[in-house]
Design goal:
By secondary structure, the chain is α+β, with helices and mostly antiparallel strands. Helix content is 47%, strand content 22%. The strands form 2 sheets. Strands 1-8-3-6 form a 4-stranded antiparallel β-sheet. It has a 4-stranded antiparallel β-sheet with strand order 2-7-4-5. Pfam families: cNMP_binding. This is Crp/Fnr family transcriptional regulator.
């Protein structure tokens, strides 16, 4: 059976068995329990995570303590505070586990070594980065132009399994609406 990370990478580039073993050698596996943090605001982020199983959220807290969810991370998704990871500056966000999670991670130094020695992986991450920017642009556009009902329906269509895995208050925090508004959108 093909390793899930290899399957994920080979959606973009092809790898020989030897190349994949070389790539995998740059990653470590970690398990986290529900409610454990991967990243806390103020720390320097040293790792980029790929989700084998489980569900996570990245978010920030405003000055009143209200949670604003930026991203969910589920199987086959990458998650970190990219500004902190790339620039090695203090994180502005939190990332914690909504469910028990199994993750693979790569640290910045290993990612740099891997991309320098293997141009296929440089292309892989360039493509993933472009796709991430497109997703972010679409999220911003949706927040700016769509009603809360349309945002809710788009999220439901795009990620139906999320609604079975994530409490409604988190869906509301992601959509930028109150829990009460979310309840009305369900009707």
């Amino acid at each position: 059976m093909m390793h899930p990370l290899r399957k994920h990478i080979e959606e973009i580039i092809s790898l020989t068995d030897e190349e994949f073993e070389f790539v995998l050698g740059h990653f470590e596996k970690i398990s986290k329990r529900r409610h454990q943090y991967l990243v806390q605001e103020g720390e320097i982020v040293k790792r980029e995570y790929w989700v084998l199983s489980g569900c996570l959220k990245s978010y920030f807290l405003d000055e009143t303590g209200k949670e604003h969810i930026l991203q969910f991370g589920m199987e086959n998704w990458w998650i970190t505070d990219y500004e902190s990871f790339v620039k090695q500056v203090p994180s502005k966000i939190y990332i914690d586990c909504i469910e028990d999670c199994d993750l693979l991670y790569i640290n910045f130094e290993n990612r740099e070594k891997l991309t320098a020695s293997m141009h296929k992986m440089e292309r892989f991450w360039a493509k993933k980065s472009k796709m991430g920017r497109i997703a972010l642009q679409n999220r911003i556009l949706s927040l700016l132009k769509n009603s809360s009902k349309v945002r809710y329906q788009l999220l439901l269509e795009q990620y139906p399994s999320l609604f079975q895995r994530v409490p409604k208050k988190m869906i509301a925090a992601y959509l930028g609406v109150s829990r009460e508004t979310l309840s009305r959108l369900n009707d």
